[in-house]
Amino acid sequence: MHDTPTTTGASDTVKLGDKTVSRMAFGAMRLADPAIWGPPADRDHSIRLARRAVELGVDHIDTADSYGLGVVEDILREALHPYPDHVLIATKVGQVQPRPGEWVPIGHPALLRHQTEMSLRRLGVDRIDLLYLHRADPNVPFADQVGTMKELRDEGKIAHFGLSEAGPEQIELARGIIDVAAVQNIYNLTTRHWDHVVEYCTRENIPFVPWFPVMNGALAQPGGVAAEVATATGSTPTQVALAWLLARAEVICPIPGTSSIAHLEENVAAASLRLTDEQIASLTAAVAPAAE
Question: Domain 20-213: which topology?
Fold first, then answer.
């Protein structure tokens, strides 16, 4: 017998910028090759995958100019353009990949502008729904980086601005220059050093978009608490991990990524999984958050 679902009544949607979107989104990074360095071996498959996400009701798709060296933005345009009005496409600038597996933040205003112009062209739009500063460049004044994004917004090239891998102090600094529509940090059941940012975003009603939202390791293995909850709920450990995120805070919008249509369908289905309060508590207690 399955446990009784929790009655917390968490919303299935969130206001992201000027659109209300489903909280379970899609991270498009793996539409590129496995190294995120170039085109996929099967471009048609990546196009089908992007289209299937929208067919399943996903209306928030996250990418970056550096994924596949721009290839992922091209694929999204080919798969979905003209984009349905209800679909929000978010992308990111401010980080480059000089070689596979190496990511370097570069926040010079001229480069941020160039990257934004290229994203506009590849996505086939006049205005980007949501543009993140992918990483803050420690060698460029933060106010200059955020100020450039405000200029781009004021020019009508971006609708909303977000920050990635940022703490409360940096978010506050940015909010003194421009509205922050979303914060995207790594966060999952076993990687919780940004717990204090989740709390901050909850207080401030800022959508928190966890990247790498599906944990791996012992908790998902036979005998692990996620595996046990999956057995009790007739689901999978991946779905349990995603459902835990949705229960963690109503501002959380996971962006699980995959190159598999079957895994995409599994991820989207996790939005309907309701865990009991006891299950949520056991999952939360299974790994103590790292020190801030």
Answer: TIM Barrel (3.20.20)
